[in-house]
Amino acid sequence: DSSRLYTQPEEVFYAYEQLSSVPNAAFTCAASFGNVHGVYAPGNVELKPVILHNTQEYISEKLGGDDKKPMNFVFHGGSGSSVDDIQYAIEAGVIKMNIDTDTQWAFWDGIRGYEAKYHDYLQGQIGNPEGDDKPNKKYYDPRMALRAGEEAMAERLCKAAEDLKCVDVLN
To answer: What are the phi and psi torsion angles at 154 (to 5°)?
Structure first.
């Protein structure tokens, strides 16, 4: 029953009415449109950003105004989503997206890549492909692996900024 898996326009409109009654209210809605926290194999719940578009249309009709996007949405659980789905959700009024799982993976993947690259230098304090008496301190310094994780996560954040159309928005 999709009405139990996905937020219905009537539910969002109810929240909109209640929150709009608060003076100077600024709010967002984290509607469920198949988004989940984490990354899972496809097939359990289908991502349907069209629900956000339909909800905007429903609220706009109820309000009878010219505002075609009266609700600001949060895309909870955006990790693993396609760029097309992300950008279609933005067109529906998404102003914030959570990508914690993607950034965690990117950080870990950076550390994993560091270990793979320097594996033979990380087997002991002394001795590596350059010689049995060569020290490895600069390789097993945890700050080196953590830096690789930071760099990978920063790269993922730059990609997210591009996907979310947040690059050069002031130009």
So the answer is: -60, -40
Mean pLDDT of the 134-155 span = 97
Q: Are 55 and 33 in contact (CB under 8 A)?
A: no
Q: 91-121 in b/e burial notation, b at 16+ Cβ within 10 A? A: ebbbeebbbebbbebbbebbbeebeeebeeb
Q: Which amino acid is at 95?
A: I
42 pLDDT tier (thresholds 50, 70, 90): low
Say how far apart CA 90 and CA 14 lie, in whole Å: 22
User: Model confidence over 43-79: pLDDT tens digits?
Assistant: 666 889 999 999 999 999 999 978 899 999 999 888 8
For residues 153 and 156, give the distance between their C-alpha atoms in angstroms, rounded to a whole number: 5
Tokens of 92: 């529906």
**No. of helices (H) and no. of strands (E), the chain:** 7, 4
For 11-60, the DSSP string reads: HHHHHHHHHHTSTT----B---SS--SS---TTSS---THHHHHHHHHHH
Q: Kind and range of the H or E element at 53?
A: helix 50-63
> Within a 13 Å sphere around the CA of 158, how many CA atoms are in the beta-carbon half?
6
